[in-house]
Each structure stands twice: as structure tokens, then as C-alpha cells.
Amino acid sequence: MESPPSVSERDNTNSPISVVSAFWKDFDLEKEKSVLDEQELQIAENQGSSQKIRRKLAESTRNFKKASPEDKSSLFNALLKGYQEEVDNLTKRAKFGENAFLNIYQKLYEAPDPYPALASVAEQDLTLSELEIENRKMKVELEEFRAEAAYLKNQPTTTRRLEERSRNLEQQMEEKVKEIVEIKHRNLAEEIQKTLEILKEREQLLQDQLQSAKEGVSNIKKLHELAQNQLFELCAQSVEERAAKQAEANLLMDEVDRSQTMLLGLEREKGVLRSQLVTANEDSGNKKSDNSDSNNPLENSLIAKEKLISELNMKLHNIETTLSNEREEHINDVKKFTAMLNEKEASIVAMKKELQTRPTEKIVHDLSFGAQGLATEQIVHDLSFGAQGLATEQIVHDLSFGAQGLELAPSGEEAPCFVHRRAPNTTLNNWTVTEPMVFFFPPRA
């Protein structure tokens, strides 16, 4: 004989969670999903075929409307048959949809409301989380109590063990500190040696640069003197050529003045001869044959004067052309000499700028002296400071800090030298370029 179910079993059977769980287990949602998918595919297929048939019916209706009365009687039966088939298809689709809806409706109609079950599950989950939190707290407290009890039991043994461990750690730390100090001293010595070598190399490099700068200054002096000599020679040559051309131009201008005076005299004489010829022609109107011999010399003289005038005009034109050509040559020479002078001045300015960027002998000396003093002071300071350290961490920190400071010292000491002694002490800054005087003789009017 079976025993009756207990109270907890009856409560579980009648609880909302068990009812909802039993229903959805029997419902088989995955199976219903596959059935619904098939129905959805069938509905989509029916909709596609119905759309095609409707397009055909619309086209048949348009053809029927456009047809003549004689053809409408033959097309009416086919059109009516098509509409009847579409009505039958729509009826089947509606029936299929109704059956599908009723099927799922009948299955879901008996489904219990899942909200009470979900609310009960949420409440139980919240209660369970609170219980878990409280359980973890209790475990932590229990572990703390156990640890405290064990600590109280083993306190004397633990104290002795910790004291022994502390002594061992102190001894190890002292040995490690000594080892670190020795390593740092060796590293400092090596770094100092490297720094001194670098400073020596830099000093040698600066001395080489200074030597090359001195050689450059001497070369620039030579080039400057050579350029000034060339400029003076060109200036003197230009002045001499200009004086010769001016003298030649004065001679040509005097000759032009004489030619113009002669031309004016010939013009006046030509006018007198023309007036005499006209007077002679008027007075000897009736005596042509007798006076023809006397007029011929006058005409010949007039022709000779005109020929002389044309020759003088041609000569005057040639002189003016020569003067204009010489004036253009003179202007071109002046431009060429000015351009050469500008080029020389630009090269001198560029050389001055290059010399200003190079270090002087005083800068090299100050740099080497400052670097050596800094290296010596840093070595003494680091060694004395490392020997006086009492705490391990402080010693290590100070030694590492001293090494870093020594490494950074050369670059830090170089900067003030180049900042405060930027202007090189060379004699090139006192050079002055004597600009040659260029004389320009304007053409005479």
C-alpha cells in the first residue's frame, strides 16, 4: 500500500512554478516552433502565388476593358474563371490561417499565467543571494576565529621564529648593502673614467674645431685682402677707363660742336646762295642764254654745299651713336662692379656667421676646467656620502642618485659655458669693408 504524499510534495505539486513547468514541458515549444515555421513558409508561398495571380487578373482585366464588344464575350468566361479560382484560393488561405490560429490558440488557452511563478522565482533568488552573502560572512568570521585561536596557541613559537628570521634578514641585508655599495663604487669609478675620457675627447674635438676656426679666419683674412685688392684694382681701372672715355667723349662733343657750327654756317651760306640764284633767275628772264654760264657755278657751289651738309649730318649721327654705345657700356660696367662688390660683401657676412657658431679657445679652456672640477667634487661627495649611510634603502637611493647626477653633470656644465660665452673673441668682428667710390659721369646735353 503506497504511502500518502508528504506536505512538501503536495505544496510543490500545487505551486505555480511546478504548474508552469509541467505545462511548458508538455507543450514542447521546439516542436511547436517547427510547426509554426512550416505554416509561416506555407503562408508566404500562398501570398507569393496570390500576388502573381492578381497581376495576371489585373492584366486580363485591362485587356478585357480594351477589347471590342465582340471579343469581350469570348474573354469574359476566362476572366470569370480566373476570379473564381482566386476567390477559391483566398478561401483556402483564410481557412488555413484560421486553423493555424485556432490550433495555437487552443494550446495556449490552457496555459497558466507565468507571472506568479516568475515573481516567486525572483523572490527565492533574492532570498538565496542574501543567504549566500550571510554564509560567506559567517565563513570569513569562522576563519578569523580559527586563525586567532591558532595564533594565540602558537604565539611564543611564532615570536621566536620571527626573531630568528629578523636576525637572518638583518645579516643578509647588511651583506647585500655592502655588496651594493661595492658595486656602486665600481660603477661610479667606471662611469667617472668614461666621463673623463668623453671630456678629453670633447676637449680634443673643440681644440680641433678651434684650430680649424683659426685657419678659417686666416683664410678669410687672405680672401678679404685679396677681394679688397681686386676691388681697388677694378675701381682704379674703372676710374682710368672712365677718365679716358670722358676725355674721348669731350673730344667728340667738341667735334660735334664744331660740326654743328660749320653746319649752321653752311646752311646760312646755302640760303644766301639760293637767294642769289633766285634773284639772278628773276633779273635775267630775258637773258637766259647769256647768263646761263654765270649761274652754273652758283648751282655747282650749292650742290657741293648740300653734299658737305649731308656728310656732316652723317658724321654727327655716327658720333651720337658712338656716344650712346659708350654710355651703355659704362652703365653695364658700373652694374657689373656693383654686383661683384655685393657678392664679396655677402661672402664676408657668411664667413662671419660661420665663425660666430664655432667655439673659441677660451670656451674650450673653461669647459675642460669646469668638467674636471665637477667630476672631482662629485667623486668625493658620492664616496663620502655612501660611506656614511646607515639605512639600507637610503644608501641605495643616494648612490643611484649620485651616479645619475654624475652622468648628467657634463651636459649640465657645458650649457652655461655656451650660453654666457656665445660671442667668439675673434678679430673678424672688428673688420670693416672699405667701399670703393664709384664715379658716374652723366652724358652732356
UniProtKB/TrEMBL annotation:
Q: What is this protein called?
A: Cux N-terminal domain-containing protein
Q: Which residues form a coiled coil?
A: 80-216
Which InterPro entries does the record cross-reference, listed alphabetically?
Answer: Cux_N
Keywords from the named record: Coiled coil
Give the originating organism: Vicia faba (Broad bean)
Looking at the record, which segments are called Disordered? 279-298
Annotated Cux N-terminal domain ranges read 14-124
